[in-house]
Amino acid sequence: MALEMDFRFRRGDFSLEAALSSREKVTGLVGPSGSGKTTILMSLIGILRPQSGYIRILGESELFCAERGISVPIEKRRLGVVFQENLLFPHLNVMDNLLFGYRLTPAAQRRLEPDEIYDLLDLRRLLRRGAGSLSGGEQRRVAIGRALLASPSMLLLDEPLTGLDATLRDRILAYLLRLKSELSIPMVYVSHSFADITAICDRVALIEVEVDERHHKHSKVSGLKKPHAAFADLSGVVRAGPIETIIEAVVERVDKTAGYAQVRSGPLELFVTDTSGSPGQKCFVTIGGEDIILSLGELPRLSSRNVWRGRVLDLESYQERTIVSVDVGRQIRTVLTVESARELELKPGSEVHVIVKANSLRAVMVGG
């Protein structure tokens, strides 16, 4: 399935050219405030109608075509939408919120069943609670579940992690990554956060803006790039924030007495201080780039359990820092000052040791 659009929209002094074709699971949409991100989403949803062009979800339907006079009504576009504001129905409990779109979807078009979403997003224990009694993170999970149970052909996520504290942000992001790995529903993800974009998006579309001498604003989608390849383009648009790597792993062993859990992601073994999981349980581990130490040469004896041999893949400059990508069985990114990177004489192919304390790794256990 692919999203394909090529349309023009104009209103007053603002115009937008949105040409994009993506077959990725998660397509990021990035641009400065007022560049047209919301205009693109509203055009996809059907709230706004472009003056020319088309919007298609290949393998599903043609949502809009100006030339042929096609504009599918909003309720028939089968797009799931999650806004920064959760917009739950306050008079309904969690179950009725979740089932609102599901009940309106013809049985033949239902792609997901309630039990599947309850388990996927760990919502079963919340079903009888009122929407107003939920925490911010719980509300966001319900909003995502409600959108999914409408059996959308695509999920549109508008700043879904904005406004959450670090713990809730990690947890919701872990669930989104789980959706990405376990469901076949493509997503369009709008965000100003570099960490979020690089964690979940496969490709990023950057919206460029020009203002002419008459103060007319013209925005244009510049094409798709891998998030890591878009460092320079993104640096003036998104918040610098943390540079992180998020790794999907499975719990192998839990030692509550020692206060750590041993988890594995392919060939990479990690030790984390979250002992709430159980063997066989899936988790997502966040490694902060500024929590990593790189070492060259022979390694001294260290107290840290997380010491991995690695090879430098590349170095990139980003907002007065140097981002070093290292292969340790999984690709991770670390942050150095420009001076430190120069002193270490790092280059692609350099052999290094990667060191990070267990209590610096943030683990989120998902499922049971």
- Number of β-strand runs: 21
Q: What characterizes the major β-sheet?
A: 11 strands, mixed
Rg for CA atoms: 22 Å
Number of helices: 9
What is the global morphology? globular
Q: Quote the beta fraction.
A: 35-45%
SS class: alpha+beta
Straight-line N-to-C gap: 31 Å
**What helical percentage do the residues reach?**
10-25%
**Strand neighbour order, sheet with most strands:** 6-5-4-1-2-11-10-3-9-8-7
Describe the structure.
There is one protein chain. The chain has 368 residues and is of the alpha+beta class. The chain is 20% helix and 38% strand. It contains nine helices and 21 strands. The protein has helices spanning 37-45, 94-98, 100-104, 114-120, 136-149, 166-182, 194-200, 231-234, 338-344; strands at 2-11, 14-22, 26-30, 52-58, 61-65, 70-71, 79-82, 154-158, 187-190, 203-211, 217-225, 244-255, 260-265, 268-272, 282-288, 293-295, 306-318, 321-327, 331-336, 351-356, 361-366. The strands form three sheets. Strands 6-5-4-1-2-11-10-3-9-8-7 form an eleven-stranded mixed sheet, with helices on both faces. Helix 5 packs parallel to helix 6 (166-182). The two termini are 31 Å apart. The model has no long low-confidence stretch (mean pLDDT 88).
How would you summarize the topology of this molecule?
Elements (H helix, E strand, L loop, with lengths): L1 E10 L2 E9 L3 E5 L6 H9 L6 E7 L2 E5 L4 E2 L7 E4 L11 H5 L1 H5 L9 H7 L15 H14 L4 E5 L7 H17 L4 E4 L3 H7 L2 E9 L5 E9 L5 H4 L9 E12 L4 E6 L2 E5 L9 E7 L4 E3 L10 E13 L2 E7 L3 E6 L1 H7 L6 E6 L4 E6 L2
Parallel strand pairs: 2-11, 3-9, 3-10, 7-8, 8-9
Antiparallel strand pairs: 1-2, 1-4, 4-5, 5-6, 10-11, 12-13, 12-15, 13-14, 15-21, 16-20, 17-18, 17-20, 18-19
Helix pairs in contact: 5-6
